Amino acid sequence: MAAAGGGGEAVAAPPRGIRAWLRSAFRFATDRNDFRRNLLVNLGLFAAGVWVARNLTDMDLMAPQPVP
To answer: InterPro entries recorded for this chain (predicted)?
Structure first.
């Protein structure tokens, strides 16, 4: 019977410790062959960029401009 992931690979044990967690996060983000993971990472980066653009800008484009 095939694995739940569809690729036939074994399910890894949960990471223990910060180094193992970082290693698994890096492997998750850099796996070029998994479309779903790449989609998730790209959507997360897009959402982070939208959040930065909306919340960290100091410009108010509707404010009156200073007269020289």
So the answer is: TOMM6
